[in-house]
Amino acid sequence: MTRQTALVVEDSPEFSRIASTLLANEGFRVVTATTGDQGVEAARKHAPELVLLDVTLPGLDGIEVCRQIREFSDCYVVMVTGRTDELDRVLGLTMGADDYVTKPFSPRELTARIRAMRRRPRVSPDPEVRSFGRLTLDPVAREVLVEDEVVELTRIEYDLLDTLTASPRRTFTRTQLMDAVWGGDWVGDDHVIVVHLANLRRKLGENADRKGFIRTVRGFGYRFEPVAAHEPAYSV
Fold first, then answer.
1. Chain centre distance of CA 2
2. Which sign does the torsion angle of CA 138, 68, 114, 118 carry?
3. What is the pTM of this model?
């Protein structure tokens, strides 16, 4: 069986060694890069399934590396940030990262997150195209259109929309959405859901003047409304 490739983009030899060993133990063929520019080049060359990407890098920073990788790859991207770098986490998720861990990270925690991502099926069991007015979702093609224009979503954004549209008007808690997208052994906090849903809403054209398909149920969670409406601003 051909082993999947993991790319570690990290300028710290210690963290690069720890991450490489961990990923090799998970069955990956591991390649490494020490600068942002090298990371983008390695991602193009090796087409990794997973990229472990430090935010602070020589040359291009991790945020820009993630943005450029998303232009040609749908691989899993896990950002590595400083413990207090909340802004970096949000920016990384906005640029298309699937998850983030903080330094010094727990090898056990990182392993659990990687396993949860890889177990998540990428093909919906329901092959029917779902149409909701201006919004169409094709589970087989993993394609989303708004007013007949293709909308580029990250893996997590698509999986959230897939989960919500599969059960219109059902209200999901953040925990239920995390379980559906990342698996039952998710070990992160639920703020990641807020960021990904905000990005998804923006890409669907929902804003302060146009409340759309994804609704916040205050104190509980989120639901998908089959018919979007012009209503007051939403909040996440």
1. 25
2. positive
3. 0.60
* H or E stretch covering 51: strand 50-54
Beta strands (DSSP E) in 98-199 are 99-102, 130-132, 135-138, 143-146, 149-151, 172-173
Q: DSSP letters of 167-194? A: STT--EEHHHHHHHHH-TT--S-THHHH
Q: Give, for 23, the enclosing helix (H) or strand (E).
A: helix 13-25
One-letter amino acid at 81 equals: T
Task: Write the CA distances from 214 to 136, 164, 179, integer angstroms.
Answer: 14, 8, 18
In angstroms, what CA-CA distances link 228 with 58, 189, 194, 215? 45, 29, 20, 10
CATH numbers and ranges of domains, the chain? 5-119 (3.40.50.2300), 130-224 (1.10.10.10)
pLDDT averaged per 10 residues, the chain (length 236)? 84 93 94 96 94 92 91 88 66 79 84 80 59 88 90 91 90 87 66 88 78 86 77 41
How does strand 99-102 pair with strand 214-217?
unpaired
By DSSP bridging, strand 29-33 and strand 5-9 are parallel
